[in-house]
TrEMBL record:
Subcellular localization: Membrane
Lineage: Bacteria, Pseudomonadati, Pseudomonadota, Gammaproteobacteria, Enterobacterales
Keyword Zinc carried by entry: no
Pfam families: Ion_trans_2
GO MF, one example: potassium ion leak channel activity
Source species of the chain: Paramixta manurensis
Keyword Transmembrane in annotation: yes
InterPro entries cross-referenced by the UniProt entry: 2pore_dom_K_chnl, K_chnl_dom
Domain of life from the UniProt record: Bacteria
The name this protein goes by in its record: Voltage-gated potassium channel
Amino acid sequence: MNHDGIVEKKANRGKRSGLTSFSPLVYTIFYLINIIVFTFIYSFCFKNDFDHSPISFVQSLYFSIVTITTLGYGDITPKLDASPLLLTISAQVVFGVVFIGLFLNAISHQLSDRKDFARQEEEKETEEKNLSKLLTILKPVVIEFLGILAETYKVTTTQHGDTLVANPRELFNQSYYDQICRQDFLSDETRYGKGRMLWGNYIDQENSKFSSGIDDFLNKYATKLPIEIIALLAALKLHPFLEHGKTALKMRSLNLPNGMTFPKVNLLTMEHSSVKIPNKPKTISEFHEDLLTLIDLINGKTQGNDMVMRIDLRKGVTAPPVGSAIGEIISFGPA
């Protein structure tokens, strides 16, 4: 569906210029004013220029009505030698025909506008239903990714407790960003147990699933989506936040001089380091803000419960353990 076309039609609906821009009521008022004005003209200027003169005010009103409506019963007739009166009558007839035409044109436009509005509302309703269906298809991809963010929260906190059920909009704040930026991508504890996979590999694997899920969705349904949603999904899919696990592992593979060990840091911590960098990147907050926009959109357009994050903080119940991937904040240079 052409969304720009609908917006343009709505913007132009009812817009006319010149004499055709008024409502039918305005032309009706002009029509009545025409009758009254010419009634006074006939009564005061030409009352002796009719056969069976003089005519009364009521007769002038009657003659004005039958003249503008072009009925012309012939019971009141002007003298044939009264040229000014004949010109006046002709002018009233012309005005009457013009106002009737404008009135009918305004009625036609009004009916057309109502029809267009009803059609546009129907198209909008259909569009909303289709969008709801599409976002329902995308919803499981986002829910699964929220599960990964819940695990990220779990392995970067020292707080034990019960299962925390959190609204992403309430959870995603500066304290949360400060916490997850400390991920130790070299930790060897994941949901699969200890020693089977590095946390960086696991996160990269799950982030790739999220990117692939969005990619598959766009490949199938991009032609049916508003451009704003396509741009939002593309921004999430290509966001550098999803690459930090892979980047950390690449850093680990660098050849270090003898005796040096690879610190438990990653590029995310640059956002919270003591180094003052002009235009310091904000990949954490930017990504989560875009994700919140998508979550709000899906929650608002689809049926069912709103999406939440379930964070299992119970000690020793499920892997990975609480606080198992806490790294260090980069700290060098003057604070």
